[in-house]
Amino acid sequence: MPAPIRLIVGLGNPGPEYETTRHNAGFWLADHVADDLRASFAMEKGFFGFVAKARHAGENVVLLKPMTYMNRSGQSVGAVARFFKFTPEQVLVLHDELDLMPGQVKLKQGGGHAGHNGLRDIQAALGSPAFWRLRIGIGHPRTLNLAQQVADFVLHPPRHDEMTGIEAVITRCRAIMPQLLDGEFTRATQQLHRDNEA
Questions:
Q1: Are 108 and 180 in contact (CB under 8 A)?
Q2: Which of 119, 155, 178, 182 has the most C-beta neighbours closer than 10 Å?
Q3: Is 69 one of the annotated binding-site residues?
Q4: How many contiguous H segments (helices) and E segments (strands) does the chain have?
Q5: Is 93 helix (H, G, I), strand (E, B) or coil?
Q6: Residue 17 region, left (φ>0) first, then alpha (ψ -120 to 50), else beta?
């Protein structure tokens, strides 16, 4: 039986100017999951981020939103993982994904970082790529027929139709969270991927 998820990390950039940007999709989902677990975020300087502590089936669950900017996310994730003695396999990272269209989502364990600076830094901090990722599709400027550079694209809010797809994904991710906290990854994956719009 795989280890259940104990640390849920939403990736994004701190500050009101980034709040509604595509790169903050991980923060959006983390906020909803905290609500679902009836937990609230509070800034914890020692962990370089906002931390919410919850319980699931009698076990502690920690939610984290690093406040280090995306490319230094590992500093925050590493500090929390070391303090609570979480293994990489117990960590779930929620992040935006350029290779998936809005409305699509993928759950996977391990693998590369595909140029995502937050994932690259977390992998370095944990010393392993074996953590889980929920990849929230935001689309790519090319596939969405936009002339923007990627760096500019991720720091802009999604258009209305894209946001509808992203919100639908967030709802679906919330639905499988209890399964991830129970270590039922196969069931969670099947449910999540079955709902992906072709």
A1: no
A2: 119
A3: yes
A4: 6, 7
A5: strand
A6: alpha
Residues 49 and 59: their CA atoms lie apart, in Å, by 22
Q: Going from the N-terminus, what domains does the chain have, and what CATH number goes with each?
A: 7-144+156-176 (3.40.50.1470)
Whole-angstrom distance, CA of residue 117 vs CA of residue 51: 21
Give yes or no for a contact between 13 and 23, defined as CB atoms under 8 angstroms apart.
yes
- Alpha-carbon gap, residue 61 to 22, rounded angstroms: 26
pTM of the model: 0.96
Query: Could you tell me if 42 and 52 are in contact, meaning their C-beta atoms sit under 8 angstroms apart?
Result: yes
Is position 71 annotated in a ligand binding site? Answer: yes
Q: What is the pLDDT of residues 128-149, one digit of tens each?
A: 999 999 999 999 999 999 999 9
Give the pair of three-digit tokens for residue 185.
């990854």
